[in-house]
Amino acid sequence: MGLFSRFFGKKTEAKQMDSSIVPNPDIDSAASLSIVFKGELNIDNDKLLTKLKSIDPTIKDIRYEIPYGQLEAGICILVSWGKHIIRIIGLNAPYPKDVLELCVAPASYSQEIKQQVYESDSHLLLYYVGYDQDVLEQYLALTRLAACFEQFNALAVINESAHTSLPVSTIHGMVTEKDGLTTLGQCLPILFCGFVKYEIENTKGIWMRTYGAHIFGLPNFAALANSYEESGYYFDMFNNILNYLRQSQATMKPGDTMEMGDNRMMSLRAPQDDEYFLKDEGDLLVIEINN
C-alpha cells in the first residue's frame, strides 16, 4: 500500500488492509484538538501508548504507525485502538498567536498558566479520522490521547472550533478520575462547545454564547445577560439545551418558544443585522426570556 493511501485512505479500501492503519475516508470535517508545549517536541511513541493503556486498561489493541518515517521539521503519527484512529501532526513552531488569544483569553484558569501557554514553543494537531460516528465519542477519544502528552512538557489543550482551552493537567485529572470523562461529556461547554462571555461597546449587559456546536450538527446559542453573575445560569441553560438536542435529535429554529415556569417564556430568534459579532460558522440562535 502506498504512503498516500495509508495516510489518507481510499473509498474502496476496508478499514484495515495488510495490518496498516487506514483512516476513515468518509470523514469530511474531522473533530480536532490541539496541544501546545514548552520547548521542542520530544515524543516517545512507546511511552505515549503505555500511558494511554494505563489511563484506560480496557484498551487492548492500541498501536501506532509513522506513515512518512522520521521528519526533520516535525512529526506525523497515526494512533489506533478499537474504532478510533487519530492523526497527529506536530510542528516545532509556536501555535498561531491570534488563535491562542481567541481560545486562552476567555478560559477560566490562572493568568500564570495562560502566560506559559502564550509563550509555548511547539504544538500538536490531533484529528479524529476513525470509524466511530458519534462526535462526542470522537472528542472523548481525542481527549484521552491528549491527556497522555502531559509527560512530554505539554501545557494546554486547545479547541479552536470551540474558542476554548484547558491546562493539560486539568485534562489529565479529568481523564484519570472516576467519571471524569462522563462529566466532560455531559458538560459540553467545558471544552467541546466553548462558553464565552464578552462586552460589546454601547451595549448594556454581557453577551454569553457557545462556540463549536456546529461540529455536533447543532446550532450555537447566545443570550444578552444582565451581568457576569448570570454566567452559571446561562452555562447550565446552554448545556442542557445542547444535551437535549444531541440526545433527542430534536431541532430548534427561530420563532420557537418554550415555557420555563414562573410565568416565563423562552423565545428563539436569529441574530439581528447589528449583531454582526454573533455571526460565524454554523447556525446561532439568540435566547430571549420574557415574563
Structure notes:
With 291 residues, this protein is of the alpha+beta class. It folds into 2 domains: 185 residues, no CATH class; 96 residues, no CATH class. It has 8 helices and 15 strands. A 7-stranded antiparallel β-sheet has the order 4-5-6-7-3-8-9, with helices on both faces. It has a 6-stranded mixed β-sheet with strand order 10-11-12-15-14-13. Strands 1-2 form a two-stranded antiparallel ribbon. A hairpin with a 4-residue loop joins strand 8 and strand 9. Helix 5 crosses helix 6 and helix 6 crosses helix 7. It starts with a helix and ends with a strand. The N terminus is likely disordered. InterPro entries: DUF4261.
Task: Spell out the key features of this protein.
291 residues; 27% strand; 6-stranded mixed β-sheet; 8 helices; 7-stranded antiparallel β-sheet; alpha+beta
Strand and helix layout:
Layout (H helix, E strand, L loop, with lengths): L2 H6 L7 E2 L2 E2 L10 E6 L7 H11 L7 E3 L8 E8 L2 E8 L5 H8 L6 H8 L3 E7 L6 H13 L6 E6 L4 E4 H9 L3 H7 L8 E4 L7 E5 L9 E6 L5 H18 L8 E5 L2 E6 L14 E7 L1
Parallel strand pairs: 12-15
Antiparallel strand pairs: 1-2, 3-7, 3-8, 4-5, 5-6, 6-7, 8-9, 10-11, 11-12, 13-14, 14-15
